[in-house]
Amino acid sequence: MKIGSLLISLLPLSLGSPVFSLPFGEVPFGSELRVLQLSADEFVTVPETEKLFLRRRGTNFFDITSHSGQIAGGKLKDEIPVPDYLYPTELNEIETVSKVNKMINTNSMQANLAEITSFYTRYYKSQSGFEASEWVSSKIIESTEKLPKEIVSVKHFDHKEWAQYSIIVQIKGYENPDNVVVIGSHLDSINLLLPSILPAPGADDNGSGTTTNLEALRLIVEHILSSGKTFRNTVEFHFYSAEEGGLLGSQDVYGEYRAQNKSVMAMLQQDMTGYVRDPSNEHIGVVTDYTTPALTSFMKLAIDNYLDIPYVETTCGYACSDHGSALKNGYPASFVIESDFKKTSKFIHSTLDTMDRLSLSHMAEHVKLVIGTVFELGNWPYFTKI
Length: 386
Ligand code: BES
Ligand code: ZN
Prior knowledge:
This protein is an alpha/beta fold. It is 34% helix and 18% strand. The chain has helices at residues 3-10, 48-56, 94-101, 106-116, 127-144, 203-227, 248-259, 293-306, 323-328, 360-378, and strands at residues 33-39, 42-47, 62-63, 71-72, 75-76, 152-157, 166-171, 176-186, 233-240, 263-269, 284-287, 311-314, 333-337. The model is unreliable at 1-30 (pLDDT under 50).
């Protein structure tokens, strides 16, 4: 679809708010205009307020305003290709993973989820959204402080346009430190009705993924302390800011990784891990669109062996969560959600996204997958390009 006709088609649906078209890259300083990418080859330039209307209608996008160097002459520069890496087709860490998975503590997860949902909102532009990043950071520091500084680092990744920061926890690999395995989740929330005014507890989206990854990180650190062993490859946990603004935080992070020529060999996103529509058919959703097939096959293997519930394949669409930012920058990425997309929580992005609707034991299944992935891929010695 041509950009102009897309703009016109958006007009009547946007409740009268104006839509402007500008040549790409020419976003005037101080204006509220944003450049959005709606698919591989569709772009619009809209006022900030229009983003909300689009989201309420279910249109997903990357907000690429700060990354619009990616477009030239109205077309995306060549997409960065994702290399093919070899992933395990059989598991090598069954004993250790089974042992660590037995240590998952749903009481500690419940306490974390209660705290993270107690912020009025974690909207990335709000003061409480900033305080939420401070809280996540303090929890991470608490669980990693016993590890030597040569092994673990916790960095705040600041963003230019808003105060809530992303957090990068790095556990340095002892053999191939340049090979990085990333576990991701976004820490912000949003109330799509009035983001700056109404509460957004964001229990499922994405207090659940944040809690999942905090628990996995806590147990991994405990294991390193008791065994004295880290991983062959570098393992990172990322807690992204501003996913709900159009994958803003994760695009900054992966844009920077790309600029620094970093090698991310695998990324697993945890976003919405707690809602079970039908407990008699509890399962996990493996996302097969806009993800890397070989890595997704590994995730299925890990689910079959490390989890107590089965998976179903599902789709989530373009620009669905932060794994999209990894993929866009040429890094293999995977996404596993709480269930078949059709059966995910309908309460997200509202005041109703509260923790009483979630299952801690379901979230524990996601923790098992994260731990399985960290041990298997963290120790995988064959990350050569095929
Ligand atoms: N957690 C959602 C994505 C999601 C929704 C996964 C429903 C599974 C089921 C994520 O936080 C989100 O809201 N994404 C936006 C797009 C984003 C780029 C603004 C969405 O799906 O509307
Ligand atoms: Zn969301």
